[in-house]
Every structure is written in structure tokens, then in C-alpha cells.
Amino acid sequence: MRLKTKIGNRSATWQNSHVLSGSTKSPSSSVAVWGRSLYLLIQAPKTPVYRSTVSLAVQPQNDDYFYNKDVNPNSPIGGSYPDIEMATQVKVLQTRALQNRVIEKLNADDSLRINIPENRVSAWRKALHLPVPPPATRKTLLREVAGSLQIKPVKSTRAIDVSCDSPDPALAARFANAMASEYIEQSLEMRWDSARHTGEWLTGQLEGMKVKLQKSEEQLTAYATAMNLIPTGDRNKDTMANDKLRQLQSQLLEAQNDLTSKQSRYEAAVTNSPNSLGQVVDDPSLRNYDAKLTDLRRELAQLSSTLTPAHYKVQEVQSQIAELETTRNSARDNVVERIHNDFQEATRREQLLSSALATQSVVVTDQSGKIVHYDILQHDVDSNRQLYESLLQRVKETGISSALRASNIQVIDQAEVPTDPISPNMPLGMGLGLVSGLCMGIGLVLVRDQIDPCIEQPGDAAFYLNVPELGCIPSWSLDRKRGSAFRKEPMRLANFNRIAGAVQPGAPKSYSTVAESFRLLLTSILFAGRRRAVQVLVVTSPNPSEGKSTLVSNLAVACAETGRRVLVIDSDMARPRQHQLLGIPNDCGLGELLSESTPLDGHSMMRALHATEIPGVSVIPYGDADGISSANLMHSLRLPELIDLARESFDVVLIDTPPMLYMADSRIMGSLADGVVLVVRARQTLRESAVKAGRQLVEDGVPLLGVALNDWNPRLAGYYPASEYAGYYDKER
Known about the structure:
Blueprint: H1 2-17, H2 27-43, E1 50-58, H3 68-71, H4 82-93, H5 96-107, H6 120-127, H7 138-147, E2 150-153, E3 159-166, H8 169-226, H9 240-271, H10 278-281, H11 284-306, H12 312-402, E4 409-413, H13 426-451, H14 460-465, E5 469-474, H15 484-487, H16 496-500, H17 513-528, E6 536-540, H18 548-561, E7 566-570, H19 578-582, H20 590-595, H21 602-608, E8 610-611, E9 617-620, H22 630-634, H23 638-649, E10 652-656, H24 665-672, E11 675-681, H25 687-700, E12 704-712, H26 714-717, H27 722-729
Parallel strand pairs: 5-12, 6-10, 6-11, 7-9, 7-10, 11-12
Antiparallel strand pairs: 1-3, 1-4, 2-3, 8-9
Helix pairs in contact: 2-13, 5-7, 5-8, 8-12, 9-12, 11-12, 17-18
């Protein structure tokens, strides 16, 4: 929106500034007219060109047709990514190889007749008897048609439009249809070549796999023979050696358990009394002996109570008891001996089983290694056989697939002979010329602003600062009567009327461009103060050497012509010039008034006031106030009193201040004045400096009446001839 406003304002400014020259066309409209005219000149001699289009449909391939997906190593991915597939097909249609096929086919077709109308340029050359280039060859014309080829996929579909342009409409249609047919034929050839190459590759792999299978079978047989292995056909079934090993392991475990039990009983028999052993206590024969001994001892006790030890019955019972005890002890010793024998037997059995297990482990380990190697060889044989059978099946399927001629590309709309040309399109071209001309004009405005950062012409300062433009002071060179000769003279009072363009009292009235521009500036300032009377006016500039001091002196003279009493105050401490321009001494001035400590009154001001030779114009120069800081003087409380005294004594007070981007004097003076005029010099003041100065005044709350453009040369801007300026102002009224 800001860009649009800027361009509109710039165009309006351009038009307003060109009213004097009688031209109301903006740069963009002029460029637009030239654009349309240029288009007509370029397009009018051209030969009409016709366009013909053929539409193709690219269907997704059925990769599983006759197992083609399994035998094609380069399986397409279009089914999952249709955009990639369509982009690939468009690229194939754009290849030079396909276009060369079409060109060669049509060039060899004797039935093709090419009717290219004569070029209008050639017709003019013939009419003017100028050399005419030789006609293009048949192949060259076909290549030109191929160069105009346009391939466009239809969005959200599987369709592709192929368009050709040619001055011969029949040739355009013929070429488009030939492109479609050759594209389909090339697609079939590519698929056939792919299937053929795949079949050849599979056949070579099949031969190698066959040799590998035979070699692996021979290695398996040789190893089984060398190791005396008898294949059982079931590698998962355990061998006898493994069964025997497991049996020995089970028996050894049982023998070890039995040995542990018998060893504990043996150790108990060795360390304890035989009568306390469980085997002895639990033995039936020993318990029978113990029972008989008990009966005999009871009987002996009964006999001993009535008979003497020498009695035969007593001795007979004692003899039986001794014999039975001997027998019982012998039986007890046999039980202990049996425990010892059982322990030795268990120990021997455990040793034998351990030895047998170790021997069988060696046998099983050796046999297992052989079986593992045998299984590896057997696995290689099985894998090679499976790969061989799979390759054999693929070779058969590839042979069938290569014999098929099925294409996934179809022509859905044949190219027809066009009746209307597509070029040249006069209405469209003129509209494009108009639009392009407008764009170029806008671009010229913007580029010019970017290339030259200075304020150049009337309206620029008003546009960038958003304030009125009060006046425009032309260059001194426009005044033919007071041109370069007076500019070279020193600025003396005697030459003031010629330099400033003002009129001295009593001199005949003569008009010049520069003099009238100051009078117009004064009128603009007076109109700007309609709502608020402008009595005290501050004139400043963003930078030095922009002509503010000269403008103040000339403005004072122009104001005095209206019968007003004018006071010029020079507050530019860095470069005071009003005493030079207006021809007065600089011995006492503003610096002394502000630096004194005595009360300020009319008598004090009159002491610093200097009358000039121009009626109604008085000056307070800056004076000889060396060593006094300008900042201290501007902040003096006497300054507002001085301004008030000047208001009472004069109709208009013009204050010449230093450049405001370098010193703060103009901002301080502006706060006491009724308005400020900002002076900018054409082709010297930067837009950025002017905007910064205006922004400072607005932020300070100082009323900025407007800007004045100084040293503007209409000749450089090309507004109107300088003779019109001079011719008009040469007349005396």
C-alpha cells in the first residue's frame, strides 16, 4: 500500500511540475505507448504460427503380469509415486533421442508435404530487389518444429499434452502425432530390450549356478565316502553313538549315586560298633539269634536259681548260649563284610562307567564334527539346487514376457490440423505492451529514487517531508540579464539588487526569474500563516551551503517591497553573512545583546540595530562575540525578551540560523518563532538529511510552514526549454 501511494504521489508530482510545459503524460504512460508501438513493429512482419496438440494417457504398469515384477531388476516405482512417474515420462518425451527419431521418420516419408508460407520480410526484400536467404531444407524445418515442442502434464491426472508449433498447420499436427506414435514404440522397445537383457542375464546366471550345484554335490559325495558316513536322509534323527553316550551318562549318574550311598554305609561300619549298624540291627537272622539268646539266658537264669553251675543242665544251657553267640557273631561279621564288598563293587562300577563315558565322548565328538561338515555340504547342495530351479523358472517366464507387446501408453486425443494461429496475437500483445510499459515506467521512478538520493526537482521535498512546498528558487543561470557575469562578482551592496534579484528604491522595475521566485515564496509564506499570523520566521537548512542566508536577505527585500518593516537577525555564529549581503558593519550584534548583563530594552536593541540602504530593512548582525559559546547564548533568558521587543517594533522578523543537523540554534529559535522554513538545495541536499531535519522540528513541536527548493535548474530536469523562461521574463511591465 505504501509503495502504491508513493508511486501515485510521484506520478502526481511529475504531472504537476510538467503543467508549464503543456505535457500531462506520466513517464509510465509514455513508456506504455512506446511499448505498444514497439510490439506492433516487431510482430507485424512475423509469419502466423499454428499449434497442434496430442493428448496421451500413461497408465500404471501391471508389474505382476506374467510375473514380470520378479524378473525385472529395475521395477518402476510409479505405482507408489505417480508424480515421479509422470515427471519421468515428461523427461522421456523431451529427450533429443526421441525427437531425432521423429525427425528421421518424417524426413524419410515421401508423402509428407511441407507448405511454409513466404516470410513477410522475404517478400519485402524481394519487392525491394534485395538478396533473399535460400529456403530452409526439409530437415531444418522439422528441427524448428521439434524446437517448439512443449510437454505439459495435466494436473491431478495421468494425461500429458504434447504440443508443436509450425507455420504449416498440417506439419504441426503430423509432427505431434508422430511424436505420440514414436513415444509408444520406444516404450515397447525399451520394455522388450529390458526383458531381453534380463533373460540373457538370467541365462548366464543359470549356467553358473548349474556348475556350482554339480560341484557342491560332488564334494558332498566325496566327503561321505572318505568319512564312512552313511546318509540316513534324516539329519534330525540321533545316531547310535549319541544314544550310547546318553545311556552311559545315565548309568554313570546312577552308579555315582549308588557309590555315595554304599560309601556312607561303609564308613559308618568302619567307625562305629558293628552292633549299632542299621544293617546289623535290621538283619532278620541276627534278630532270630538275638531272640534265641534271650530265651536261653532266661532259661539259664531260672536254672541257676535252683541248680548249681556244675549241674549238667546249667552247663548244657551255657554251652548252647556260647555256640549261638559264636554263630551270631559270625553272621554279624558277614553283614559287615558284605557292606565292604558292596562299597568296593560300587567303586569299581563307577570307574568302569566313567572310562566308558570318556571313550564314547571322544567317539561322539569325532562323529559330530564329521556330521556337521556333512550337513554344511548338504546345505550348500540344497541351496544351490533351490537357486538353480528358481532361475530356471524365471528364465522361462522372461521368455514369455519378452514375447508380449503391451504398452501402458495410450493416445486419448489425436492431434488435428489447427485453423487459427497462436502468434502473432495482436490484442494480447498490445495489452502486454501496455502492462509492461506501465511496469517499466514505475520501475524507472523507483530506480531513479534509489540511484540518486538527493532532492532534485519540485515536489520531491514536499513528498518526502509531507509538508507544503512554499517556493522554488531557480538557478542564477536562468536569468539571462544577470547570468554568469554577476555571479562571478563579489557580493557587495552595490551589486545586491542584481545578485538577490530584489529592486532598490528608485530603480526602474525590471523582472527576472530569480526575483519573481522570491516574491512567490513570500506570497506562499503569507498564505501559510492565514490561520496564525507569521511575524517571526526562522529560516534554516539541514546542511551548510544550501543557500539559506541568501534566501533570508532576498526574502527581506521582497517583504520590504510590500511596505512592511522587516528585521533580519543573523544567529549563525559559525558563518555569519547577513552583514556582508546587506552591507552593514559587524561590530555589535546579537552576541553582545545576549551576553550583556544589563537589562534589555529598546535602547539596547537599537544599539545593535543597523539600518540598510534598502528602505524598511534593518539588520541585527551576529556581532563580534568571540569566545562566547553559541549554546550558552541561545539558552539565555534575554533571547525571548529580544524576540518580544522585535515583535513590537517590526512587522516581520526573519532569523537566519545555522544548519540544524550541526547545531541546535535553529531548534531553539524555532520554539520562539511563529514558523520555520526549511531550505534545501537541488541535487545537493540528501533526502535522508531533509527528512531527519523535518522530523526533529516535528518532534520539538516547532511549526514547520514548509520547504523552499533552492538552485533548481529546469534545463537539467527537461521540463521546458530555458528560452521560454527567459523570453517571458524579458518583458518589462
